[in-house]
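[User]
If only I could read backbone structure tokens as easily as an amino acid sequence. I have put the entry right below:
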Amino acid sequence: MFRKFILIYVFLFSFYGFSQDKTGLVHYGEIQGMGTGAPVGPDYKSVLVFNSSSSLYITRMDSLEGGHINDHIRYEGSSRVSKTVVTNKEGFRYYNHFKNKDFTSRDIGFTYVKDHTPKIDWNISSETKAIGKFTANKATAHFRGRDYTAWFTPEIPLPIGPWKMQGLPGLILEAYDTNKEIYWYFKSIEYPTDKSYLLKPIEHVGEWMSTEDFKDYLIKAWKDAQIGGRMVGENAGVRGAEEKNITEKLMLRSYIEGFADDQ
């Protein structure tokens, strides 16, 4: 508790001591191995652009990968798995205006979701390690169906990170769930950067989903996919699981965000 107090004090002192609103750009790798029990799957290039009031995380974007990708790839790990790897022109985007506590995203299924910045109840430990040129502190939390470990640096005292990982007294450089089925790792940073033009709110003409609507959308999409797959199997003479065995718990392993017991 005392260490957490000290870190928050350093964060506040450093944050309000900023003399200039510099823009930064972090390059991450994002490995997605949902459902495999290991960090086995697509390794997307992603970026986080930020200043002292907001951040924008972008992944699965054509230009980051050097061109459009739409492929089905077999990965070798503890077991062989096949994953679809797809990028698009705009990518998935997550804009966090943490000063105003507003969070918008262009997410799975090209849905547009608008809500408050998620609250993550982090526990900060005394453990540290070096990541790049930074000293990073360890923190853990449970968030929307998964247990996460994050490594953040108070040397950049902004409560930001990749995807929806945020709320710590420093930039998150690395984060992963229990089995690293989702794993963000630090590559490099430009701070300050001349790419401040990238940091802008997500544009959308039309209605925004709420987080609750997005949750319902994911559950329905998963169940529809399972039912469609079972019908194909039955037509081929393969008997599958009964619908009653299609549980939300299994659905949670298919997405980063499971909404098992929290919002």
Summary: The first strand starts at residue 24 and ends at 32. Residues 55 and 96 are 5 Å apart (CA to CA). Residues 13-19, 240-246 have pLDDT under 50 and may be disordered. The helical segments are 2-16, 62-65, 211-235, 248-252.
